[in-house]
Structure formats: C-alpha cells, structure tokens
From TrEMBL:
Keywords: Metal-binding, NAD, Oxidoreductase, Zinc. Its EC number is 1.2.1.46. Residues 35-153 form the Alcohol dehydrogenase-like N-terminal domain. NCBIfam families: fdhA_non_GSH. GO terms for molecular function: formaldehyde dehydrogenase (NAD+) activity; zinc ion binding. Belongs to the zinc-containing alcohol dehydrogenase family. It comes from Lichenifustis flavocetrariae. Its cofactor is Zn(2+). Pfam families: ADH_N. The keyword Oxidoreductase applies. InterPro entries: ADH-like_N, ADH_Zn_CS, GroES-like_sf, HCHO_DH_non_GSH, NAD(P)-bd_dom_sf. This is Formaldehyde dehydrogenase, glutathione-independent.
C-alpha cells in the first residue's frame, strides 16, 4: 500500500482530490486497535449526505476526507480479526458500530454508543460522527471489522455485480429501511418524496416489498423522467401545491398507505424557497389514518445555512397535531445497515433488484470526483460511483 489519495472538503462548494496519509490500525484518538482491517477501495459513492456538507450546510471542518459508501478488498487485518482474510471482498456499512454496546445488541447500529464521544452514532468521513476517516480514497481503515463488514461469498460473481453491490453500503438499505418503517406491504399505495438516489432506492424497495403503486414527487424534470423510465409514477410538484390532488390523479383518492421522506432538511416548497418542514407536513396530509411515515431523509441538529432562524438549531414548524389526530407513526434516524444488507445482497446477486439501473449509476475515476460533486449538486439524475483503482470499469 502506498500513494493514498482522497476527496477532501476544502470549503463551501469546493472539494479536491489530494494526497492523504495511508490508513493505520488506529482509532481517531490515536490508539492502536487490532479489531480493524485496511481496505483497498474498490468502489465508493458520492452521497447526498456528503453534498449537504459540501454546500456548507453543516459545521464540517476544512480538510475532512469525505466518503461513507465503501466497498473494498481486505489487504491488512489486525490480530483480533477472526472472520475475515486478506483478499476478501466486502461491503462496508456506513455506520461505524462496535457490535457490543446496548444499542448495537438491540440491532440499532446507527446509534452505537461506543464509537463517538460527542453523540450516539458514528460514520466515515462525516461531521460530528466520531472522526473516522472517509473512504472516498484509494485505501481506508474499518474498525470492528468482524461485526461491521459483509463478505461477498464469491469474488468473481460479486465483481460482475459490483455496480449494484456498491449500493449496499448506504442508499439501498436506507431506502429499504424507509419503506419497511413506512409499513409498505403487498398491495400498498406509496408516495416517496424526492427522486434522488435514496428516493429511487426507497421506491425500488417498496416495489420489492409488494407495493401496487409507487409515486415519486420532485421538482426536477430530469429526475422525474428517469423515475418514470424505470417504472415509477412521477409526481411533478411544480404543477401546484396540493399534493393530495396530485396523488388522487394517480390512485383515485388523495391519500396513500405509506409515505417516505427521502429529501430531508434542505426541502424546497412550491414557491421555490427552502421550507425545511414542508415534506414532513405533506406526509401527514396524504398518509391515511393509522398509516406510517418512514423518514430516511437527513435532518440535522444544527444548520448554519438555514433560511429560518429556528431551523439553524434544527427546529422545524411541524403540524404535529395533524399527525397525532390521524394516529400516524413516524420513524427517523440513521439506517442500521447490518439489519438489511445480507438479504439485500442476495436480492442483487439473484437479479431481484437492478438497483444500479434504477439509480442510474455512473462510474467515474477518483480524480473526477469534483466534477461528480458539481453535477450532482446541479440535480443530475445519476448516482456517481468513484472507481479509485479502475476495478469497476475493468469488471464492466
């Protein structure tokens, strides 16, 4: 291992690919750890959550190495790693989780109590998530490897499906979690807010779970056209601000069984300005009484770039009384990826879910990452997959 390079946050609107230190078997506070592995990164994706930081909408410091969606090959392992070997190809859940605290033992790995001194939950290359170095790089260290990593059973078969399997680290389990928590089942009518990659993954998951109709709402015409091309019902939110009427035009009634918020705190309203609570309020309006809302979209405790003063502290103007009166259920928070990734891996390997096609995966080199961030920020109907060693392109 030598010549590590990674995508570094420079400041609002700017990232650079720079030489960075080679990973070591040590924690963010410098302690030697033996439960970790070092990976040669095979693929690593640009995520909408990364984009929030790059837009300057968080307190992320300059110099942060980005990237929490990682697939890689084990090239070194600590003495305590027993279930993995050098040469194994693995998927990395974006959650950093110890596997032994109370929340991890309950399956809530998104809020591990042991990997972040500031708050529950850890992640790679993300602000306030424990200081773990990101994986939009050539090499990366992964702690608690036996617990966290999902080994692919056959390397050649996995590489043939790598454009699909790279989505297991985050967006596919995140979309699936949103659909599960929204109560999607056979025959469900479903509304997904947001036609970006997570929204498309949620819609695909709803279909996998048996939904009869899956609608996706957005203002972005290119993204809506892509959603239609892969079999979902596009809802053009630019037509007017009565979501119930738009839903009724598809299913005959102004309500759905399940709703999924894949937008998060940077949501825009019909008038064009930011309205961080607009999606959640719309979910409450269109979800049937006794239904559920899954919220995989990102919300933050601090948003220094918010248009509303309250939103700068993470406070939103919710119509909570409406949700209460309809007996709605809500589920928020980071997805516990290990709860779903093995089952979803099999769905991908056995051709049940063409997720790379659904999210329009576009493979680019590591050095092209700044262009990928720029295009994604403009609303491109694509999921950018970085290929640090050219292995994804070679497999294709």
């Amino acid at each position: 291992m030598s010549g590590n390079r990674g995508v570094v946050y420079i400041g609002p609107g700017k990232v650079e690919v720079q030489d960075i230190a080679d990973p070591k078997l040590q924690s963010p506070d410098g302690r030697r750890i033996e439960h970790a592995v070092i990976l040669k990164v095979v693929s690593t994706n640009i995520c909408g959550s990364d984009q929030h930081m790059v837009r300057g909408r968080t307190t992320a410091p300059a110099g942060l190495v980005l990237g929490h969606e990682i697939t890689g090959e084990v090239i070194e392992k600590g003495l305590d790693v027993e279930m993995l070997d050098v040469g194994d190809l693995v998927s990395v859940p974006f959650n950093v989780a110890c596997g032994r605290c109370r929340t991890c033992k309950d399956g809530d790995t998104g809020v591990c109590l042991h990997v972040n001194h500031a708050r529950p939950g850890g992640a790679y290359g993300y602000v306030d998530m424990g200081g773990w170095i990101g994986g939009q790089a050539r090499y990366v260290m992964v702690p608690y490897a036996d617990f966290n990593l999902l080994k692919f059973p056959d390397r050649d078969r996995a590489m043939a499906k790598i454009r699909d399997l790279t989505m297991l680290s985050d967006i596919l389990p995140t979309g699936f979690h949103g659909a599960v928590k929204a109560g999607v089942g056979v025959g469900s009518t479903v509304y997904v807010a947001g036609a970006g990659p997570v929204g498309l993954a949620a819609a695909a998951s709803a279909r996998l779970l048996g939904a009869a109709v899956v609608m996706i709402g957005d203002f972005n015409a290119e993204r809506l056209a892509h959603a239609k091309s892969v079999g979902f019902e596009p809802i053009d939110l630019g037509r007017h601000d009565k979501l119930g009427e738009l839903v009724a035009a598809v299913v005959g009634v102004p309500e759905v069984d399940a709703a999924i918020d894949a937008v998060g705190f940077e949501a825009r309203g019909h008038a064009g300005g930011e309205q961080p609570a607009v999606v959640l309020n719309q979910m409450m309006e269109v979800t049937r009484a006794g239904g559920a809302v899954g919220i995989p979209g990102l919300y933050v405790t601090a948003d220094p770039g918010a248009a509303e003063q309250a939103a700068k502290q993470g406070s939103l103007s919710l119509r909570f009384g409406l949700g209460w009166s309809k007996a709605l259920s809500f589920h928020t928070g980071q997805t516990p990826v290990v709860r779903y990734n093995r089952q979803l891996m099999n769905a991908l390997l056995y051709d049940r879910l063409p997720i790379a096609k659904i999210v329009n995966a576009q493979v680019i080199s590591l050095d092209e990452a700044p262009r990928g961030y720029e295009d994604f920020d403009k609303g491109a109907a694509a999921k950018y997959v970085l290929d640090p060693h050219g292995l994804v392109a070679k497999a294709a």
